[in-house]
Amino acid sequence: MATKNKKTTLTKQDAEQVIDLLAACYPNAECALVHRSNWELLIAVVLSAQTTDVSVNRVTTELFRRWPDAAALATAVQEQVEEIIRTIGMYRTKAANIIKLSRKLLDETGGEVPQDFLALIALPGVGRKTANVVLSVGFGEARIAVDTHVFRVANRIGLCHEKDVLKTEEALMKKLPKKRWSEAHHSLIWHGRKICHARNPKCSACVLHEICLALK
User: Fold this and answer.
1) Is position 4 within any domain?
2) Candidates 129, 167, 178, 179; catalytic one
3) How does pLDDT run across 137-160, given as a tens digit for each residue?
């Protein structure tokens, strides 16, 4: 593995080759959170913080059956929501946030999810990553949402060398063609889950073996 202080990054041409290779490896890479509307997507992404999409999908079926929209969830009793989502991390905080979020949406937009970054991050429990996922997956905008997988993989392989998620997002936006931002986001997530693990990455099985700067 490369030294932690390595400064060299991949060129724009190499970076696009990375996305080509990952796209070929994961042609069906997409958001793994089960949802039927932008509201369900928003709630699911908020719930997914520091837990797995699989864990979120296990609880949202019942959650959305009980409270199918913002108007319904806005009136929910927090303890009842907690009981349904208690198997995921930080369930008490998340239960409070999605109820407050729903009330705010109901008051400000009639329950509709806004297609506006600033309006989204003003909602309880919503940060840059969540807003970018909603705008990308829900509204089809070109966005790069930096979660733990995107941050780790991008910095490890040499797409960038940054110390926080915001700078990583900005670096990737400069390095990659805008039309491929959303594609890159999903491909990097899938690669992080399947091959480029935080511990013991499967470097010998990686399609980026010849280009990854961590192996130079």
Assistant:
1) no
2) 129
3) 999 999 999 999 999 999 999 999
